[in-house]
Design goal:
By secondary structure, the protein is α+β, with helices and mostly antiparallel strands. It has helices at residues 2-31, 37-47, 65-76, 81-93, 95-98, 120-144, and strands at 106-108, 114-117, 163-168, 174-180, 194-197, 204-212, 215-220, 225-229, 233-234. The longest helix has 30 residues, at 2-31. Residues 141-150 have a biased composition (Basic residues).
Length: 235
């Protein structure tokens, strides 16, 4: 009686072990399912190379091909129908695939057999979708592009003859920039007139000796003759 009880207990342990192994295998099977969309596309290209591809020219696929794929994929148990549908949507939205939708092209089934012509409506839709997708991609690249820091040129708008008055900190760094512009005499310039001529750091007193167009000859109070421009005559 005791021997029979021991056998029964041993059988029970073996049954539990077998059940645990089967359960573990089921879990492994579920864990091994492909969940990444890109990996699913690669899997489809491997399983159905005459229909799907991951590089080169794509082939237009049969309308309603999801049903055929689901039946084949279910036998392998590697891809869920939800992920399969998402992968199929991504594949048919790629630029490479949209470019394959051309007039006169044939759609193929999962075995690569040509089954139907592409309608003109589908060609126009693919063309519009491709253009819109490329435009969005260009806008995203433009937004991600680093913006160049355009610094203004301090001397770009400096008037001729003007000087920059730059105050510097003790360490020699510029902290403030101001432009002083001297007022010029546009009218009333005539020979014999006492004027100030902008030369160097400070204007020099003198008398206009000769005027020739925009050029003015001035004799300074120290006896030097200077040829300058009207714009150099200041108040």
């Amino acid at each position: 009686m005791q021997q029979n009880e021991n056998v029964t207990e041993q059988q029970t342990v073996e049954e539990q072990t077998t059940t645990q192994v089967e359960t573990t295998e089921d879990n492994v099977e579920v864990t091994n399912k492909i969940k990444d969309v890109n990996e699913v596309i690669a899997y489809l290209a491997e399983q159905f190379p005459k229909c799907f591809s991951i590089k080169g020219e794509a082939k237009p696929i049969k309308i309603g091909i999801f049903k055929d794929l689901a039946e084949r994929v279910d036998q392998e148990g590697r891809v869920s129908r939800t992920v399969l549908r998402t992968a199929l949507r991504k594949y048919t939205s790629s630029w490479r695939y949209l470019e394959s939708i051309q007039p006169g092209a044939k759609r193929v089934d999962i075995d690569g057999n040509e089954v139907e012509d592409i309608e003109q409506e589908h060609v126009e839709h693919a063309k519009a979708t491709l253009a819109e997708s490329k435009q969005k991609a260009a806008e995203k690249r433009k937004q991600r592009a680093p913006r160049r820091d355009k610094r203004p040129n301090d001397g770009a708008n400096k008037p001729k003859g003007a000087k920059l008055n730059i105050k510097r900190s003790p360490k020699g760094k510029a902290v403030d920039v101001k432009v002083k512009k001297r007022r010029t005499i546009d009218t009333g310039i005539f020979e014999g007139k006492q004027v100030l001529v902008s030369m160097g750091r400070a204007p020099i007193e003198g008398t206009i000796k000769e005027i020739n167009g925009d050029d003015v000859v001035v004799v300074t109070n120290t006896g030097f003759t200077v040829k300058t421009e009207k714009s150099k005559i200041v108040k």
